[in-house]
């Protein structure tokens, strides 16, 4: 079994996502991944360490982190729905490519979290 740390997740993410801006990579990227790890802890009710992340949590963490990073890349100005230069106007339609990718990875991550399940805090007695 291979355990990940936040740095391992960051390395994998940088291999998957091209052209991550320097303003996002580095310490900011580790913070983004840690916030997603914390979200997963709150969602599942399970403890997910930042140093020894089990294999069952890794796919969901990657997908949620990719969704967040791509969404932030959209804020950096790398995606445009329409561009106008004088008489020339180019439109992409509803939602740019980064929005679509971000939504897709978030849906994947949430589906994987639902598969892991939630820890219930109540029980039934007879």
Termini Cα gap? 40 Å
Order of helices and strands: HHHEEH
What is the total tally of β strands? Answer: 2
Radius of gyration, whole Å = 18 Å
Strand coverage percent: 5-15%
Low-pLDDT segments: none
Give the assembly state of these chains: single chain
Strand order of the largest sheet: 1-2
Overall geometry: globular
Query: How helix-rich are the residues, as a percent range?
Result: 40-55%
Structural class: mainly alpha
Mean of all residue-level pLDDT scores: 84
Biggest sheet descriptor = 2 strands, antiparallel
Q: What count of helical segments does DSSP give?
A: 4
Short characterization:
This protein is mainly alpha-helical and 126 residues long.
Describe the structure.
The protein contains four helices and two strands. The chain has 126 residues and is mainly α. The longest helix is centred in the last third of the chain and has 20 residues, at 97-116. The mean pLDDT is 84.
């Amino acid at each position: 079994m291979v355990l990940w740390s936040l740095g391992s997740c960051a390395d994998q993410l940088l291999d998957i996502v091209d052209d991550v801006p320097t303003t996002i990579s580095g310490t900011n990227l580790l913070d983004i991944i840690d916030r997603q790890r914390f979200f997963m802890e709150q969602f599942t009710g399970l403890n997910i360490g930042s140093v020894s992340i089990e294999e069952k949590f890794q796919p969901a963490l990657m997908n949620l982190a990719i969704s967040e990073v791509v969404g932030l890349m959209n804020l950096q100005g790398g995606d445009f729905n329409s561009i106008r230069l004088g008489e020339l106007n180019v439109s992409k339609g509803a939602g740019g490519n980064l929005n679509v990718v971000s939504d897709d990875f978030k849906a994947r991550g949430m589906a994987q979290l639902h598969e892991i399940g939630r820890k219930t805090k109540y029980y039934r007695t007879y």
